[in-house]
Design goal:
The structure holds two protein chains of two kinds. By secondary structure, chain A is mostly helical. Helices cover 73% and strands 0% of the residues of chain A. In chain A, helix 1 runs antiparallel to helix 2. Chain A starts with a helix and ends in a 5-residue tail after the last helix. The chains are: A mainly alpha, B mainly alpha. The interface between A and B is large, with 87 and 72 residues.
Chain lengths: 166, 102
């Protein structure tokens, strides 16, 4: 019972923080809400017994991506002269409609489908040994390609962001 | 016991919120943050399915590893493009960088 209550606290926190990201008028507040939401999803991975992914989530999103986003925000902030920046574009009602429809479809599919016998019990214990075997043996080639992707992204972002006149 | 549907509902709501952010917000960094929300919803979905329905293979967890890898690369590249755009145009509003729009 205690686990259920904790789960719901986490779920409400994740959704509330995500709503804060998209509805907050201040971009810095949005970034802080984003960190909260990503940390909440890491907690969800703990509930799913995938501790490795929870740690990866905290390290990469909580440590890397959020710092990167905060730095970019500070580098691209303009002094608006006390005038408030316009938050949403003219397409905001349309976006509300599309997102609402998308949510209705996703919720309907999640509730209306029979997910089979495994869906009603708890999550099976996912051992970190199995993750390692699957990642390095069965998915070894994609893993190497992913490292090349990261290297190219690293070089590309250095070239894009550096000063032209040296 | 938390049934699988709870995770699916949570990730569906997260994905819809992220989609709203991508469509409604006009700051490039805000759009990027909303994309991160959507990617997280997808990872949560993959891992939930893996832990409940596929515990002997856990292909969903491997998928989530690659989603996080590509998301990290995407954020680094997109933010350097945003910084370059800001240097050229002194704005990070995507509506003011619509020269390629037909």
């Amino acid at each position: 019972m205690a686990a259920e209550i904790t789960w719901w606290v986490f779920a409400v926190a994740v959704v509330a923080a995500a709503a804060g990201v998209v509805f907050s008028g201040n971009v810095i507040h949005s970034a802080i809400f984003l960190i909260l939401s990503l940390a909440g999803v890491a907690g969800m991975y703990l509930f799913l017994t995938v501790e490795f992914m929870a740690l990866v989530q905290l390290l990469i999103y909580g440590g890397g991506v959020s710092v990167l986003i905060l730095l970019a925000l500070m580098l691209t902030r303009m002094d608006m002269g006390g005038q408030k920046e316009k938050v949403n574009g003219a397409q905001m009602p349309f976006a509300l409609l599309v997102a609402g429809g998308l949510m209705a479809v996703l919720v309907g599919v999640a509730l209306g489908t029979d997910w089979g016998p495994g869906a009603d019990g708890g999550p099976a214990n996912v051992s970190i040994d199995l993750i390692g075997i699957r990642l390095f043996e069965d998915f070894g080639a994609p893993f190497v390609i992913a490292s090349v992707v990261l290297l190219v992204a690293l070089i590309g972002s250095i070239i894009l962001a550096r000063d032209e006149e040296e | 016991m938390i049934p699988l549907e709870n995770y699916l509902l949570l990730s569906g709501i997260l994905f819809a919120l992220g989609a709203y952010g991508v469509l409604a917000r006009r700051s490039a960094v805000m759009i990027l943050m909303s994309v991160e929300l959507m990617l997280n919803a997808v990872s949560l979905n993959f891992i939930a399915f893996a832990a409940y329905l596929d515990p002997s293979q856990i292909t969903g967890v491997i998928f989530a590893v690659f989603v996080i890898t590509v998301a990290a690369a995407e954020v680094a590249l997109a933010l350097s493009i945003v910084i370059r755009l800001f240097r050229l145009r002194a704005t990070s509003n995507v509506d003011e960088a619509a020269n390629l729009k037909w």
